[in-house]
Amino acid sequence: MRDLVLAGMSTPQRSDSVNSSFDKYLHKKTSVQDFIKQHEAFLQDRYDEEARADSDPWNKLPITKSPSPLEKHMSVAYTHAVFKKGQVELLGAIACHPKPERQEGAEMVFRVQDVEKKQEFAVAWNELKAEISCVCRLFEYKGFLCRHAMIVLQICGQSQIPSHYILKRWAKDAKMRPLMPEAPLQAQSRVHRYDDLCQRAMRLGEEAALSQESYEIAFRAIDEALSNCVAVNNNSGRSSVEAGMSSASHGLRVDEENQSLNKMSKKKNSIKKRKVTPEPDDMTVEAQNLQQMVCCP
Fold first, then answer.
1. How many Cα atoms sit within 13 Å of 206 on the Cβ side?
2. How many domains does the chain have?
3. Cβ(128)–Cβ(68) under 8 Å?
4. What is the model's pTM?
5. pLDDT tens per residue across span 130-174
6. How far apart are the C-alpha atoms of 64 and 76, rounded to whole Å?
7. Residues of 217-247 as b/e, b for ≥16 C-beta within 10 angstroms?
8. Where is the composition biased (Polar residues) (predicted)?
9. Does 137 map to a domain?
């Protein structure tokens, strides 16, 4: 759980935020019919708020409070809400005093004294991998870097926050980024293929539902794709069965040949045994006859 990014969300907080959102639309005596109407109004208001939140980062630049290049980079990369939180951490880095403690290969470990919190924090920075971590785990919990990591980045000459520390959900262009690669992935497992296809199907459904013409195009394409997939899977299944049957028949032929070879080898061994059976020599027989003639009167 230490390296899991929770983005500052917990179960009670999620429940409280949903309940507070409905407070101005519902009350204890709200009927079911009024609830449906108010729910539609609630959804419309949320859509409007989301649209304003999407347009504000592009139309209004946030106000920076320092000449730090890190703050300028955050103002361009983050949404306004997350930029304000990151700005607090960046300004709080003034009260932090880092000291190099040790170096382990490409990784530098700093001991950062936080004067405001009256604590010391260990920060590890790997320049080759552009990875930084702090024991306070603010990034893992909130989703943006802490003041201890930012002061280390500053003294190491970094003018931008590494891209993998700018979560997609906090970025300005979160909705403008492609949701998936254009080329098909080499997905080895069935689960990965299923997940990728589901994401593409959702994107297709959202786009094709905008008009009847686009719906008919998507409908025909899906129907044709389904037929092609069924045909390919049936052919592959049939070929695998045929391959299994051919391998089985080949195995039977091999077994029969082995059995016939074993029988022939057994016959040859029996013939050799009969030929090799020792017989008494002629000289031995003659010697025995002479001995008998001498012994007999």
1. 5
2. 3
3. no
4. 0.48
5. 999 999 999 988 889 999 999 999 999 999 999 889 888 888 766
6. 11
7. ebeeeeeeeeeeeeeeeeeeeeeeeeeeeee
8. 10-20
9. yes
